[in-house]
């Protein structure tokens, strides 16, 4: 599903964010991306949804070489990739339903289908009782769930989450994790950048560790702490 | 497509409402600019009409010597008609000239009472396609045999035309400057609106909206702001024009001020197009530099 071949990323200010990364993530995998702040986790995720292009090397997503992808096709790639940020990026001038519906509306889905799909996903996420609420009245955990709902309502092939449990208490974090596992079971490839040692150790999934932009370990059923 | 259109319009109104004060300021600024543009338009269109009237009335008159035979006169008419820029040649006989004079002087018949013989020369009245031909044609005609003298509007008319031409060009210049200024205003305002919705734009780009899908609501916002402003400007101008043209007619009656419906319609359509053009173009300009892809 996702392949990287000798990917380097250097920013214009000469900061080297990623150094010679080669990796293969298969369809339906659940992968933790760990490492200290500044290790290059966010850059890694951005490369996948083509927020940025690599300075060197190739990134291939669902068979498409992103360096060769025409600018006008980028939106269509993004429709196959859901993204969840730590800082939510919600629209606070719209209610919960509209926030989720937004990602379907911008891709031109029919209203009747939007209604059905959004209600369904809100049910799964457990927010259907708050669909008319404004997001700023939701708790942190609920806001994060809302972001996940928005990211997966279009049933993407890949879900990228950037420290989704970063600001949440352990119980709420585990709830979010369970939600992500559920989405993974549907067949969505999930990549989760995380600092959360507790969650990583508990989940027993593949763990990719980055340090100063380099891939230092890649283990199946890995743990957070260095081996 | 229709479904998207509803979405765009809804988003455009949403944004207009959200940035209420800025939206109001834009409409006021744009309306004011359009009113000023409109004033210059009215002035320059009126001048155009005035010049056209004046030009159509410009003729050269060539006085003939009294000793010409009918054949010679016909030849002169033919030669004159063949000159460059000449539209028509009318022969006015001595008798006709006297008749005209009599008509002109109906209130002062005594002036003509003492005249025994017709003192007026026969003449050719020459109309031209463009007043620019007048001078050259007059010179050419004066070289023909049998022509005593050629008169045309002369320096006064020429000066008048130059002044009007200058006003017309200056007006056009001012309109262009104002147009540029108002596009800048629109550009700045939509830019503010875009910035206040940066997050929304990022999210749209992230969930796979195409660039045009992101742009349309802003363009529609610009369109409606332009439309409203031009309608307001037209209403204000219409009222003011009605009032001032009435006054102007009393003060300077010889200037023909145009008050006809089709004239108002012309101004209205121009303002409408200008308003919408400024709104849409300003929006496009401010959207050009957003980076949808970099998040």
Explain what you see.
- The complex is a heterodimer of chains A (227) and B (295).
- Chain A is of the alpha/beta class.
- Helix content of chain A is 33%, strand content 26%.
- Chain A has seven helices and ten strands.
- In chain A, the strands form two sheets. Chain A has a six-stranded mixed sheet, with helices on both faces. In chain A, strands 2-1-4-5 form a four-stranded antiparallel sheet, with helices on one face.
- In chain A, helix 4 packs across helix 5 and helix 5 (140-152) runs parallel beside helix 6 (170-185).
- Chain A is globular, with a radius of gyration of 17 Å.
- The mean pLDDT of chain A is 91.
- In chain B, helix 1 packs across helix 9 (211-251).
- Chain B has helices at residues 2-18, 20-57, 70-81, 94-104, 110-113, 133-142, 154-196, 198-206, 211-251, 261-287; strands at residues 59-64, 86-92, 123-128, 147-152.
- The model of chain B has no long low-confidence stretch (mean pLDDT 78).
- Chain B has a four-stranded antiparallel sheet.
- Chain B starts with a helix and ends in an 8-residue tail after the last helix.
- Chain B has 295 residues and is of the alpha+beta class.
- The A-B interface holds A 46, 49-52, 71-72, 74-79, 83, 89, 91, 93, 102-103, 105-108, 110-111, 150, 154 and B 3-4, 7, 14, 18, 199-200, 202-211, 213-214, 293-295.
